[in-house]
Amino acid sequence: xxxxxxxxxxxxxxxxxxxxxxxxxxxxxxxxxxxxxxxxxxxxxxxxxxxxxxxxxxxxxxxxxxxxxxxxxxxxxxxxxxxxxxxxxxxxxxxxxxxxxxxxxxxxxxxxxxxxxxxxxxxxxxxxxxxxxxxxxxxxxxxxxxxxxxxxxxxxxxxxxxxxxxxxxxxxxxxxxxxxxxxxxxxxxxxxxxxxxxxxxxxxxxxxxxxxxxxxxxxxxxxxxxxxxxxxxxxxxxxxxxxxxxxxxxxxxxxxxxxxxxxxxxxxxxxxxxxxxxxxxxxxxxxxxxxxxxxxxxxxxxxxxxxxxxxxxx
Length: 314
Description:
alpha+beta, Structural Genomics Hypothetical 15.5 Kd Protein In mrcA-pckA Intergenic Region, Chain A, globular
């Protein structure tokens, strides 16, 4: 696709019924991802109304406009909340559905982007504030993330993560009846079928330890508090799946559950939330501890009951 520019195109009778993305791809060329990006960033309008769905069906005579200068629409559901900020670090509460940091060169709308947008709304020169990545949580996981604002702070926080002295507690809802336990395994990028998972081959993979505590027993699932002793990619999701209790809303580490003939519970989101983050301030050494519980980016009691059912009788 040529560099996007402002366009106004009318839907012809023979194009009626096409999905918006397909119509734009035919009119502009380029890939599906490029066309969807235009829609997702609020650059496409149908009869003067900002388009929201790539699959929206069009009618003859409708006017489709591409406005490259149109600002990205604000969506409170995917905005980050600044929990704490000082000269050396910032802690945010990330909603589910957005990446912590870009994984591809052109990826936008990440938590880092949303943080800078929040700064701009506060009147700060966001582009001049340094941000250093200290850790990440999954795109589908909500909750607390810390960024450093100086190289010195980044190095000090990174050292705490390497030493496993950071307090990290998650809340999750898993299929079935989970038991209290400590899970230890060695995780590899590919267990042999393209998925991350545990290996029994000596000296392969990275040591991974997860502590699971039962909070509530529900008729269809279990609410758990999870403490990470290590912080490997997808560690909680993998360990729960390998226990036979994948998290509700899991879409990747669900293969074995399906092969066992079990039916997963439907959920609009992955039921995993980073609710506690504690560490020593990288400069002052002061102990800091932050919590994100209920409301906000997390899931509440009504959400839990909807997917996991009522409390299980004692």
